[in-house]
C-alpha cells in the first residue's frame, strides 16, 4: 500500500517564488520551530538528518521504495525522501524522536521490543511511525495490518513479529 502525503503546498509559499540558491526555511519539527538555510531541492529526509541532526529517520533507498524514512506531516505518514523540506513549512513534522514523551517509550516502541520485531533495526523507525499511523487510520483488522504496512520493507524479514507488535498495541496487551 503506497503512502501518500498531504497537499503540502496548500499553506506553504509557492516553490517558484524562491531559489534556486539557498533559502531560509522554517520547519516545525516535533513541536519545535527549526530554522534552516537550504537549497529548495533538499528533501525533508536530508533536512532532518543532515541539517537538524535528527537521524532516527533512515535513508534506505532515497526513492520512495522502502519506507525507512517514514515520518508524519500533520499526523499523516509520508515518505520524507520524496518530500521537499520547504514544502513542509506551515505543517507539523513528527519524527520517531518525537514519538516518546518525557523519556517514556511509546507503546508501539515497547511492543516492538517485547515482540522482538527487529533484527538489524534499520527499518524500525519507519516501521514504528507507520504502525502507529495505521492504527490511528483505523486499519486495525488482522488482514489489514500487513496490507497497510506493505510500504515498509524489512530486509531482515521480521514481518511476523512486526505484525504481532502492531496487534499487541491494538489489543492493549
Ligand atoms: S528512503 Fe524513503 S522510501 Fe526508502
Ligand atoms: S530489522 Fe533489519 S531491515 Fe528490518
Automatic annotation (TrEMBL):
Highest taxon in the source lineage: Bacteria
Chain intervals with Basic and acidic residues compositional bias: 7-19
Residue ranges of domain 2Fe-2S ferredoxin-type in the record: 23-99
Sorted UniProt keywords: Iron, Metal-binding, Oxidoreductase
CDD domains to which the protein is assigned, alphabetical: fer2 (cd00207)
Keyword set includes Metal-binding: yes
Region Disordered, residue ranges: 1-23
Protein's name in the database: (2Fe-2S)-binding protein
Source organism per UniProt: Streptomyces daqingensis
